[in-house]
Specification:
Strand content: 15-25%
Number of helices: 14
Low-confidence stretches: none
Number of domains: 3
CATH architecture of the largest domain: Orthogonal Bundle
Distance between the termini: 66 Å
CATH class of the largest domain: Mainly Alpha
CATH superfamily of the largest domain: Trigger factor, C-terminal domain
Radius of gyration: 33 Å
Order of helices and strands: EEHHHEEEEHEEEHEEHHEHHHHHHHE
Structural class: alpha+beta
Helix content: 40-55%
Largest sheet: 5 strands, antiparallel
Length: about 425
Amino acid sequence: MKYTTKAAEKSTVKITIKFDGEEWKAAQNSAYLKTRGRYKVNGFRPGKAPKNVIENVYGKGVFMEDALNLLFSENYGTILDKEAEKFTVVGEPEVSIDKLEDDGVTLVAIAPVKPEVKISAYKGIKIKEFAYTVKDEEVDAEIERLLERNARKVPVEGRAAENGDIVNIDFVGTVDGVKFDGGEAEGFDLTLGSGQFIPGFEDQVVGMNIGEKKDVNVTFPENYQAENLKGKPAVFAVTLNGIQGKEKPELTDAFIKEATGSETIEAYKAKTLEKLQKQAERRANDATENSILEAIAANTEAEIPQAMIEREIDGLVQKFEYQLMYQGLKLNDYLEFLKISNEDFRKNYEEQAKKNVLNQLIISQIIKEENIEATEEELDAKIAEQAASVEKSAEEYKKTMDPRQVDYIRSDIIITKLFKMLKESNEMYKED
């Protein structure tokens, strides 16, 4: 086998692979041995018919496709390994036959490769740096949420239902006087203002009193999941059985200690402030790093192959799919509800995917140019830090680590050093 490689357009490489007659003959024999069981020939048990007999019955080229696949699959990976310093393939190749004769075969593979990145400047740029200040109102809001989480339900009497109440209702829904599936329930608990029901339903329950019956008139949304109900006006006969309100606990040192473990309200506020400040620092750091990459990207040229963009879209879609799963939803059901095709849904991520891929290429290129590495001392120190957080010795912790964890820590060290260098090498400014 002989091969040549040549850079092609749009960040691809052309790999021409030549096999001589003996190699081509051997591949066809291998294909025969692997696939002969597929072919039925009168007078022979399955898999026992000679090669020439099968070719006479099914045609001379019966084994050619499998032979070509064998030749390519057995040699393509080896070629990529040998050429690893020249290029990195980032997607599946398009394979064609350039020559197919008894004295040999020539295959041509056009493969997308990691593109050349031309960064005109990544130092000496004026770049916005972000900072976020935690306000007292944010700490107060956290305390309010704590009280809400610990609120108890109490029966309400002597007043009508209000937003925020939990009402227990019976309801029967009809469209054009006819009941429909899923439109009827007894003893259903509904939090008013939650948006759980059709728009307009909860608003009309507000103001009802215990024991009151009322017709609630609503219209199903045009994008409602049930095809037979889309855009249809409906009437729900509602009976309000009971009302529960939320009674928040009194904010005292005793409550704070029981709910959070902090000794006093002031101690909890200080702890909450520290937590929020750390979150603000992380948000500011992320925003600053994005700002740096945006500034460098404006000075960067790269012809990104579609294969890299599609792979990044795959990751973004998968991340969204996991988020839906936590809510008990499936992506296909979500898309069906919104009446969006999978193709159109993926298009929504295309620009973000392009940006992400370019940022990854920029990061990789600068790390290479600056020769940024994680030393063994830095790696050991980070591992020791993680070990201490779970109250283990570094040696003990290392025994439980997956090699991918070590790679992640090494990468994290390198990225941290990269952005430290970029912040120091550029003119960072904060807006007043």
